[in-house]
Amino acid sequence: MAKRVAVVLAGCGVFDGSEIHEASAVLVHLSRAGAQAEVYAPDVAQMHVVDHVKGQPTPEQRNVLVESARIARGNIKALAKLDVKGLDALIIPGGFGVAKNLSTWATQGKNCSISKEVEDVLRAFHASQKPIGLCCISPVLAAKIFPGCELTVGHDTECEQWPYAKTAETMKELGCRHVNKQVTEIHVDTRNKLVTTSAFMCNAPIHEIYDGIGKMVQEVVRLA
User: Which PANTHER family match (predicted)?
Assistant: First the structure.
């Protein structure tokens, strides 16, 4: 039987939702691996809406589930309906929506809170010893919930290639072990069944980001 993998989205668009290329890559690689993706998103208001041309917030209001449905081609369920018993693994793509709509990381950093629905889902998969795949900024969710876990968001020294490297230092302050990896590489925390890759935390060609996400998906499916 095909592995059933929950994919949790955070909206539609890098600056206020899920990073679309990352979400698409996850879905393509799951399909190629013969796994069945089941897409979910919380039915809540976005923190704000960003004009992706200007890079500035707008007065609009949008719903995370409704916006995520754009990526899922309408085939999506409210996160509250997720039942871990019928699923084999969980993957959460990145994008600022993770730090704005699934948590308050964008405004509070290591002192953030995680959405209760999101935290409950992560804890349920972890308690069931089912693998969790995280890319880009989404490993911060595990850093907050599972102290002592091993993760990567790429590199921990900021430079032109790694503009968000301070995230790694903040995760270390939460008690995690950050492992430096290239964009096409993954890190596997075998004890916690966490598979992470940096994706757009790296200023890299999109095909390299796609390849790194592919390795993450393959390992999650293998562990499921």
Answer: ES1 PROTEIN HOMOLOG, MITOCHONDRIAL (PTHR10224:SF11)
Residue-by-residue DSSP string for 37-101: EEEEE--SB-S-EEETTTTEEES---BHHHHHHHHTTT-EEEGGG--GGG-SEEEE--SHHHHHT
For residues 88 and 130, is the Cβ–Cβ distance under 8 A?
A: yes
Structure tokens at 158: 């900021």
pLDDT digits (tens, 9 = 90+) for 44-95: 999 999 999 999 999 999 999 999 999 999 999 999 999 999 999 999 999 9
Q: How far apart are CA 39 and CA 15, in angstroms?
A: 20
| Other residues' Cβ atoms within 10 Å of the Cβ of residue 97 | 31
Burial 174-213 (b: 16+ CB within 10 A, else e): bebebbbbbbbbbbbbeebbbbbbbbbbbebeeeebbbbb
**Residue pLDDT, tens place only, 176-208:** 999 999 999 999 999 999 999 999 999 999 999
Contact predicate 113/30, CB 8 Å: no
pTM over 0.90: yes
For tokens 């010893």, the residue is 129
Burial 56-90 (b: 16+ CB within 10 A, else e): eeeeeebbbbebbbbbbeeebbebeebebeebbbb
Amino acid at 41: A
Instruction: Name every residue whose Cβ is closer than 8 Å to that of residue 70 and which is 6 or more positions away in sequence.
Output: 12
The whole-angstrom separation of Cα 138 and Cα 10 is: 10
Q: What is the rounded end-to-end Cα distance, in angstroms, of the chain?
A: 12
- Please name which of 42, 63, 65, 62 lies closest in space to residue 51, comparing C-alpha atoms: 62
